[in-house]
Each structure stands twice: as C-alpha cells, then as structure tokens.
Design goal:
Length: about 375
C-alpha cells in the first residue's frame, strides 16, 4: 500500500483481505485483532496526552493499521507533524519553486483545518479585535487616494462577464467597500450558514493577532510544505501522483475556464466547509485548495537558492518582481479559484505571495504550535 493511500479510508487493510491473503483460521485472526486493538488502545492512552515525536512508521500490515491510527494523533484540533527531512520545491514547477532542495524541520503541531468563521468569531468576541478591513484606511498610508476612496473594505473576487486576458488580475479582483470577514463578498453578504467555512478577508496582521491569542503562531513556508506533503516524496499533489485517484475530486479548486466558467465539478463554487475533502497522510484537511493560507515568511522568488537546510524561516525582506514597491508575505495551498488553466496553486510546491495589509475573499490561514 502506497503512502498516498493512507488518506483513503477505502484502502485501509481489512480483515477480509488479510484473511484471504494468508488463509488463517478464524481463531488466529480473532486473536491477532484482539492483540492489535488492545495494543492500539494502550498506545492511544500513552500517546494522546503527550507532546513529542511520533513513533516511526512500520511497513507491515499491522504496522499500517498502527501508522494510520497514529496519524490520528490529535490534540485540541491539531495534528502532530513529526520532525523530518524532505525535498522542498519542484524540478518541474515555476521558477520560484526551484531549485528542489533538501530541508529539515523540527516537529510541530498544526491545525487540522483552516481557521473557521466560527473560530474567528470566538476570537473577535473575546478580544474585541477589529480587523484591518473593518478600519478606515489612513490618509497618510494612501497619499494619492482621493478621500472618498478611504473607506473600510476589502478585495473581492468578481467574475467578469466575458472572456478577459489572464494577464490582468484587476479584471476579476475589486476593492469592495464594506467587505470584511463578516461580509466576505460585500455589505449584503453574510457568514450565517458558513460557520464551518474558512474565515477569509483577513490580513497577515489579523492572522498574527489571532495566532498570538490562541497561543500559536503562523507556520514557516517550509513547515507548511512539509506538512502539506504528508511524508510523500516529491509528489505533485498532497495526496500523491494522480490528479483524480479513483476518479474523485480531491480538493476544492476551480473546474472549467477561469475566471468565467466554474463547472463546480467538486461540488463547491466558493469556499467549502473545512474538511469536505480527504485529509492528507498527516491528517490535515484542505492543504490543497479551499483557501490560500498565510505563512509567516516574507516572499522572495529566489529564496530557495540560499535558504538554510535546517528550519528555514524565509528571507529578511520581501520582494515581488511584479510589484517591487510592495513587500509580500507567502501564501500557500491554492484556493477555490485555482484552475489548471491559470494557477495550479494547489500543488504542494506552488508558491504565492500577497500584501500583508490586504485581505482577500480567497485567503485565510491556519496556525501551528511548538512543543511546549
Ligand atoms: Ca470548487
Ligand atoms: Ca487551504
């Protein structure tokens, strides 16, 4: 069984399969499973309350059962990502994904899912925090903007009525007054009924404040990619090599012609409730698609040429050649707007960047935590 199958419940070893392969008498099988489940229960009692590195995976059939179970090593909605060495980047990806290079990161805990509206609401209620999009922009920060444009708001995806050049992203991104995390598409929109959807319209600064409040932090870009790959080596997708294993849609992305025609083949036009698609081998949901996720690092397209091999934390400053005047932070994982014709940003090696003071309707975050 390949590791890519670990996230597919249909591929877990089953008693019937083992029985037919080895032709064991029923009593022996019963004994094996009694021992297995007793060991499993004991293991869970030992493991669950503790922080620390996971046991190494075993390759036997029994080991697979245990490995799949230890992937469920969860505390307060966070999964343990064991320390490890992996190949970061891609040989065949975009220039900023090169060179493919070896990186080692220490173990850490990571939120199983993107932070949801419900979770962000708890934070906002507890702290009274007002997000960037809810504040009136300062005239000093935007000296060239006419005063009537200095109104709170955020950037919203608005599909253009017809075919447009993919070079001009202003054709589908609009600054909408009154858009913020409570009203993701503008003042008339609401998050009611979207409690389990990822929060959007949060800036890097908003995400930082939330993380601090939660006793967590944003992941480094290397931690994010290590977690997204789920222990798979150099695979194009977070679930493995095939785009549609078993003909299934594995992530909430965009099917059809971007940005005009979304066929919703995966069932979702916009964001989906977190965890609507299979988890990766580390038990993390939506590491491909749904919403982009803020990372702690500054973005530089050439960073991989010089990044340290151990726990890289990103460059000292941000640089986006397309907008050199605006330093950007890294976002990862792609979103419901990622199509193969346009960004393919849901690949685990794909890098993207965004202005840290700007919220968007396709960008959220999740947090990580170190071993205390
Ligand atoms: Ca979709
Ligand atoms: Ca995501």
């Amino acid at each position: 069984m390949g590791m890519s199958q670990l996230n597919n419940p249909d591929s877990l070893p089953r008693p019937s399969r083992r029985n037919s392969e080895h032709d064991l008498p029923p009593k022996t099988i019963a004994l094996i499973f009694a021992v297995m489940f007793a060991g499993l229960a004991f293991g869970m009692v030992l493991l669950l309350p503790h922080y620390g590195p996971r046991q190494p995976r075993h390759r036997s059939a029994l080991g697979h059962v245990l490995a799949v179970s230890s992937v469920g090593r969860e505390t307060n909605g966070m999964m343990w990502i064991p320390s490890g060495t992996f190949m970061m980047g891609s040989e065949s990806g975009k220039p900023d994904e090169k060179p493919l290079h070896e990186v080692t990161v220490n173990g850490f805990w990571m939120d199983k899912t993107e932070v949801t509206n419900e979770e962000f609401e708890k934070f906002a209620e507890a702290t009274g925090y007002v997000t960037v999009a809810e504040r009136k922009p300062n005239a000093e920060d935007f000296p060239s903007a006419p005063p009537e444009n200095l109104v709170p708001g955020s950037v919203v995806f608005m599909p253009p009525p017809g075919k447009v050049s993919l070079e001009n992203h202003y054709a589908w991104w609009k600054y909408i007054p009154g858009a913020n995390w409570r009203h993701p598409e503008g003042p008339d929109s609401t998050i009611t009924g979207r409690e389990k959807h990822p929060v959007v319209q949060v800036t890097w600064e908003d995400a930082q404040v939330y993380a601090q409040w939660a006793g967590k932090r944003l992941p480094s870009e290397a931690e994010w990619e290590r977690a997204a790959r789920g222990g798979l080596d150099r695979q194009p997708y977070v679930w493995g090599a095939e785009k549609h294993p078993g003909n299934k849609e594995m992530a909430n992305i965009w099917q059809g012609e971007f940005p005009t025609t979304n066929t919703r083949a995966d069932g979702f036009q916009g964001t989906a409730p977190v965890g609507s698609f299979p988890a990766n081998s580390f038990g993390l949901f939506d590491m491909a698609g749904n919403v982009w996720e803020w990372c702690a690092d500054w973005y530089r397209p050439d960073y991989y040429k010089e990044s340290p091999a151990l726990n890289p934390k990103g460059p000292e400053t941000g640089y986006d050649p397309d907008e050199p005047q605006i330093p950007k932070r890294v976002i990862r994982g792609g979103s419901y707007l990622c199509s193969d014709s346009y960004c393919s940003g849901y690949r685990p090696s794909a890098r993207m960047r965004a202005a840290p003071d700007t919220g968007m309707s396709h960008t959220g975050f999740r947090c990580v935590k170190d071993v205390p």
